[in-house]
Design goal:
Rossmann fold; 6-stranded mixed β-sheet; disordered C terminus; 10 helices; homodimer; 6-stranded parallel β-sheet; 12 strands; 2 domains; globular; 33% helix; alpha/beta; 279 residues
Chain lengths: 279, 279
């Protein structure tokens, strides 16, 4: 039980959209940050299935006291396509994890998962530069992490995804943006990798399969999660059993909370002026 | 500063829609009630102008964890027209101040302002039976109050509205529903009235004109408000100056809070089965 300030008619509104929704941790963390900073805003969960995302989003524009929305699984790519404009990272990645509502109702998406993930590693003393990385997934969060790890100077990046063609496309895009980094698509086989990242939602449900062939993990490897609930996923537990260092999913959220709060509530942020988002 | 329990991904959502919004008091009161009853739900304000009500409402249906919406000025009549079905009081009055979202996305409106207003009078020891009443306004709240006062057995009811034809229509509808009560439309002249009710939003803004010709108030009269902010409107202050008893607007809200909470959060309420939802 943590207390948030009283909600009044003057309180600004922020949503988080997901499907499912009950596991998200962002409301607790962001509302705490709002309270600490004296920002009269509140984040509430909104459970919206993919089929209804567009009509929900159209209605959302009409709420004058809405500052914006944080988007998570499975909506990060779809919501970027609904935005009127995208910030530079969302445009690069092709997905958004936050949408700011401008006072005129325009919706501006941005993607902080990449900076959040790398910032989370650094907050734990882990510099991704020079690492040989296996990244599982090619959805919104995984794509953001792929670009951010490339920007942070990893030595090699292998992207493994259930739908292989999606991994190949993402690998090509990252390689084009960062020609100095060796990027390929491959299997979820962690042999030879010093940093293994689960960038999918596998691990959220108790009966999910392991996203990585854990029996091939090397003992010196770091195994990192984006799944936040449970804090220690089956993957992390298995990795610990192999002697690996665990890096929990909440670090990615913690490292981007301030970015999210500033993006959502700063009224004087420059609004990108591009006509068409280029996905 | 009042504390509400922590908002999590599992928290149910309730909105209040109004234009303007900053003055509403329902979030404070309803969130306190939710906390006291251990209901994991939170009410947040949504500022929506009339022109956008329909598109906002269409998006709202898509939020799976939304229990419903409280509607206030100026949306009580318009939102009733957007609902898939109405409870008996909303149907009688032609307006709704609360909408429950059924699990399938159907929206069911009901109107508790009438019961709230009369319940608020009774909570202060005032029985409206036998009173000669001047009611100002013919919008959603005023209409609900007109029907409820007639049902409570007032001796005479005069309805005064800026647009006179709207007062005449409402007076005819109330007279038809309650043939034993003398109902007419007239001027905002309180001579001969023992209960004077402001059922408009006049008094919310500092420069609003007085809704009643206060110099003609009789000293024995009770003057009642629906405006809650400020608690003592210019009308109430003027009435007190004439020796009248004041009845503040928050009583109408307090007397219907439990009704609102039960209507919004009870999953076992019978859902009216009329027709097709306009999904």
């Amino acid at each position: 039980m943590y207390s948030v300030p009283e909600i009044t008619g003057a309180t600004r509104l922020v949503g988080i959209v997901a499907d499912p929704i009950a596991h998200v941790r962002t409301p607790q963390s962001l509302n705490r940050l709002f309270a600490v900073r004296g920002i009269d805003a509140v984040m509430v969960p909104m459970h919206v299935p993919s089929a209804y995302l567009a009509s929900w989003f159209a209605g959302l524009r009409r709420i004058g006291n809405l500052d914006g929305i944080v988007a998570t699984v499975p909506h990060k790519e779809a919501i970027a396509a609904l935005c009127d404009d995208l910030g530079p990272e969302a445009r690069l990645v092709g997905a958004a994890n936050v949408v700011r509502r401008a006072p005129d109702g325009r919706m501006i998406g941005e993607m902080f998962d990449g900076r959040g993930f790398v910032g989370g590693l650094r907050s734990q003393g882990i510099d991704p530069a020079g690492h040989r990385v296996l990244l599982i997934g090619a959805g919104g969060a995984a794509a953001a992490i792929a670009f951010a790890l490339a920007a942070a100077g990893v030595a090699h990046l292998t992207i493994a995804n259930r739908t292989a063609v999606k991994a190949e496309k993402l690998a090509n895009r990252v390689a084009t943006a960062f020609p100095g980094v060796a990027v390929d698509a491959g299997d979820p086989d962690p042999r030879g990798c010093s940093l293994v990242v689960n960038g999918t939602s596998l691990g959220l449900k108790p009966d999910d399969p392991l996203p990585v062939r854990v029996e091939r993990l090397e003992g010196a490897a770091i195994v990192a999660e984006v799944v936040m609930q449970p804090a220690r996923t089956a993957l992390l537990e298995a990795a610990a059993g192999m002697g690996c260092r665990m890096h929990e999913g909440f670090h990615m959220l913690e490292a981007q909370l301030a970015l999210l709060a500033e993006f959502l509530t700063a009224s004087d942020l420059p609004v990108p002026t591009t006509a068409q988002p280029n996905l």
